């Protein structure tokens, strides 16, 4: 559940989600769930010309299973806290 | 994603906030379906009413009517809410008939096949 908790901290920040089909979508992280399904708001596609059908999509739901990367803002991670949480989780809670 | 009460519905990843709205569903094979979301579950299985497939080839497009569709969740890549205020597609794109879009699709497929076979025939040259 570490990454689920971690993504919950990022709600409201602007992220870029790159999918396994190479589509990259930038938007405000609205919500995330246990499967790491993601909802984005105010989305725009990085390569708009290649994906004209995405023009009128403002909000979207992305299935967790198709996500390749989530690119975060530079201040999106507090290394120390994540480090501690990782060790805690590895010890079993 | 779950069935959420009205108070947290708009804060969760639940698709409940998309019910009865016109959506674009992107599938793993690249197909684009449009329709009104009538039902869903935790796997993102979804029921689309008045579904149609939007086929885009270059600057040509066509919406092919399909009817009532149940989509198995594993095939779903993305579900987008269509902003009806904004224009649907870039203005230079042209709507054509089903027959025309099928022709364009075939031409595009033939072109990629040809490219593939040309490359295969050139392979013996061992170009670096």
UniProtKB/TrEMBL annotation, chain A:
GO terms classed as biological process: mRNA splicing, via spliceosome
Keywords, comma-separated and alphabetical? mRNA processing, mRNA splicing, Nucleus, Ribonucleoprotein, RNA-binding, Spliceosome
SUPFAM superfamilies, A to Z: Sm-like ribonucleoproteins (SSF50182)
Gene Ontology CC? catalytic step 2 spliceosome; Lsm1-7-Pat1 complex; P-body; precatalytic spliceosome; U4/U6 x U5 tri-snRNP complex; U6 snRNP
Q: Which positions fall inside the Sm domain?
A: 2-76
A single MF term (Gene Ontology): RNA binding
What compartments host this protein?
A: Nucleus
**Pfam families (alphabetical):** LSM
* Family stated for the protein in its record: Belongs to the snRNP Sm proteins family.
Q: What does this protein do?
A: Component of LSM protein complexes, which are involved in RNA processing.
Under what name is this protein listed? Sm-like protein LSM2
Q: Which organism is it from?
A: Apostasia shenzhenica
From TrEMBL, chain B:
Domain of life here?
Eukaryota
Does the record carry Ribonucleoprotein as a key word? yes
GO cellular component, alphabetical, reads: Lsm1-7-Pat1 complex; P-body; ribonucleoprotein complex
Keyword flag Cytoplasm? yes
Major localisation: cytoplasm
Q: Which residues form a coiled coil?
A: none
Subcellular localization is given as: Cytoplasm; Cytoplasm, P-body
Please state every residue range assigned to the domain named Sm. Answer: 10-85
Q: Name one GO molecular function term.
A: mRNA binding
Show the Gene3D superfamilies listed in the entry: 2.30.30.100
Q: Mind telling me which CDD domains this protein's record contains?
A: LSm1
Alphabetically ordered keywords of this record: Cytoplasm, mRNA processing, Ribonucleoprotein, RNA-binding
Biological processes annotated in GO: cold acclimation; deadenylation-dependent decapping of nuclear-transcribed mRNA; hyperosmotic salinity response; mRNA processing
Provide the family line: Belongs to the snRNP Sm proteins family.
What does the record give as the function of this protein? Answer: Component of the cytoplasmic LSM1-LSM7 complex which is involved in mRNA degradation by promoting decapping and leading to accurate 5'-3' mRNA decay. LSM1A and LSM1B are essential for the formation of the cytoplasmic LSM1-LSM7 complex which regulates developmental gene expression by the decapping of specific development-related transcripts. Required for P-body formation during heat stress.
Instruction: Relate the assembly described in the record.
Output: Component of the heptameric LSM1-LSM7 complex that forms a seven-membered ring structure with a donut shape.
Record protein name field: U6 snRNA-associated Sm-like protein LSm1
Gene that this sequence comes from:
C29
């Amino acid at each position: 559940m570490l990454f689920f908790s971690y993504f919950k901290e990022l709600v409201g920040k602007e992220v870029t989600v790159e999918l396994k089909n190479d589509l990259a979508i930038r938007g405000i992280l609205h919500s995330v769930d246990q499967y790491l399904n993601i909802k984005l708001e105010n989305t725009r596609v990085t390569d708009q010309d290649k994906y004209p059908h995405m023009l009128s999509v403002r909000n979207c739901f992305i299935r967790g299973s198709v996500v390749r990367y989530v690119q975060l803002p530079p201040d999106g991670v507090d290394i120390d806290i994540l480090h501690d949480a990782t060790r805690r989780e590895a010890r079993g809670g | 994603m779950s069935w959420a009460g009205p108070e947290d519905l708009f804060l969760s990843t639940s698709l409940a906030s998309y019910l009865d709205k016109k959506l674009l569903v992107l599938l793993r094979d690249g197909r684009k379906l449009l329709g009104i979301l009538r039902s869903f579950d935790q796997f993102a299985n979804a029921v689309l009413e008045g579904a149609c497939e939007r086929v885009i080839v270059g600057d040509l497009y066509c919406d092919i009517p399909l009817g009532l569709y149940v989509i198995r969740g594993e095939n779903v890549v993305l579900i987008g809410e269509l902003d009806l205020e904004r224009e649907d597609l870039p203005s230079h794109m042209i709507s054509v008939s089903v027959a025309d879009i099928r022709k364009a699709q075939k031409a595009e497929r033939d072109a990629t096949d040809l490219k593939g076979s040309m490359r295969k025939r050139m392979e013996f040259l061992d170009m670096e």
